[in-house]
Design goal:
The chain is mainly beta. Helices cover 4% and strands 30% of the residues. The two termini are 28 Å apart.
């Protein structure tokens, strides 16, 4: 979600809050458009049952990285009770049954041990072990990951995907959104007039043009980049500016997947 909350003590950042429903500000890929059906097949929707009554709501994005594992943001984890979560894969329209979906319970949650709740420190990554494996029904795929330590050049075009709101007024998309978003290299993103010293090398910045950005509801979702001959998930949506998400010189910030290879594979293997 890229959510606004006080308890994470990230003034000026977008952080984590309550789960999505139709009445909360749960914003999206701003400046995007409807994705084509059956594309971005590694995209997942993390859904939360806040009242333990079987009513699940989309709260964050995620990425299928293994038949039993989905990667998301640590700040999306509001409770360590795995029974309160499920993952929807093969999803396209959140409000209609498309026939392509698989809804799978979460069995175990692994949050990076370096996560403190402070987005400026980083390590905003978590893995969800599924109770049952994702099966290949033609609408899902396991994401490719980048090389360990790989960093993308300034201006490299990637794509952000998600079901967050479409604008600051709170318009909720039913259909998965996608938008091109250029990488902002660390030397620029860490300048004092951009994100300053809270932009770490274990993060990827993208956007900052005042038009396209991630926003609440997109957290945990993928930054999709075509590198080494394949689509690879280089980032996990982590934070952005408070207030309007698409601000000039305030790009969306992602956890850099290439910085966490060892930890990811220590869990999945």
């Amino acid at each position: 979600m890229i959510w606004l909350v006080a308890f994470l003590s990230c003034i000026g950042l977008i952080c984590a809050e309550t789960p999505f429903n139709h009445n909360v500000h749960n914003e999206r890929v701003i400046g995007g458009h409807d994705a084509k059906p059956n594309t971005w097949r590694w995209q997942a929707s993390l859904q939360y049952d806040s009242y333990n009554d079987g009513s699940y709501y989309h709260m964050c994005g995620g990425t299928i990285i293994d038949s039993f594992y989905v990667m998301t943001a640590a700040h999306c984890i509001l409770s360590m009770d795995a029974s309160q979560y499920r993952v929807a894969v093969g999803e396209y329209n959140l409000y209609e049954y498309d026939g392509s979906e698989q809804f799978i319970r979460v069995e175990m949650i692994s949050v990076h041990p370096g996560w403190t709740g402070d987005l400026a420190i980083g390590n905003d990554i978590a893995l969800l072990k599924l109770a049952n494996p994702v099966y290949d029904n033609g609408y899902v795929a396991i994401a490719n990951l980048p090389r360990p330590g790989e960093m993308l050049p300034h201006g490299f075009t990637c794509y952000i995907t998600g079901w967050g709101l479409m604008d600051y007024s709170g318009s909720v998309p039913a259909i998965l959104q996608v938008a091109p978003i250029p990488v902002v290299e660390h030397a620029v993103c860490s300048r004092h007039d951009w994100w300053g010293n809270i932009a770490l090398r274990t993060m990827v910045c993208a956007g900052g043009d005042g038009v396209i950005s991630g926003c609440q509801g997109d957290s945990g979702g993928p930054l999709n980049c075509f590198t080494d001959g394949a689509w690879r998930v280089h980032g996990v949506v982590s934070y952005g500016p408070s207030g309007m998400c698409n601000q000039v010189n305030r790009p969306t910030v992602f956890t850099r997947v290439s910085s966490f290879h060892d930890w990811i594979f220590s869990i999945t293997r």
